[in-house]
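Hi team,

Below is the intake form for Glycerol uptake operon antiterminator regulatory protein from Alteribacter keqinensis. Please confirm the fields before the structure is written into the shared record.

FORM ID: S-0412
PROTEIN: Glycerol uptake operon antiterminator regulatory protein
ORGANISM: Alteribacter keqinensis
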Amino acid sequence: MNDSKQTVLPAIRQLKDFDWLLRSPYETIILLESHIGQLRSIVTTAKRANKKMFIHADLVHGLKSDDYGADFLCQDIKVDGLISTRKNMVLKAKKQGISAIQRLFLLDSLALEASYKKIELTKPDYIEVLPGVVPHLIEEITARTQTPVIAGGLIRTKEDAETALKAGAASVTTSNKELWKHYIEK
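The structure came back. Fields below:
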């Protein structure tokens, strides 16, 4: 994802936070929700500020999560990373040479087993697990897949972030601006 071992990946929901992150030392920014018409401007602005933009493809309003949508994000918008629950999006990102993150929702044992099968097919660069506050599953997924895990969802406190990192998460994603600030100062 990056060479500086960024342990917190700030995930923005509101564009007002985008300006703050552009001035921050964070190298990688995750865009959670957006409108398809905003993407080009956001990614261009980020690249001018030497930031890497990772897009949650499933959360782009107006974009269909199919191969054409993936091509649009990879070839036209030129994102640095693509995050999706959909295997076709992850496979397309990998084929395009874009960082591919397979997003998993840890709902129950059946969902976890289905996720392992999906990971075998997609071989993503990273796996984002939600919720990210289940340390024993972070350990299990990391060990079983040998793929770096990003803990996301419900990371609300410094303790949540530290627990996930101690369990083996390569990074945590959070939209909590106070956590962003804490890890800058750390």
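SUMMARY LINE: The first helix runs from residue 15 to 22.

Thanks, M.
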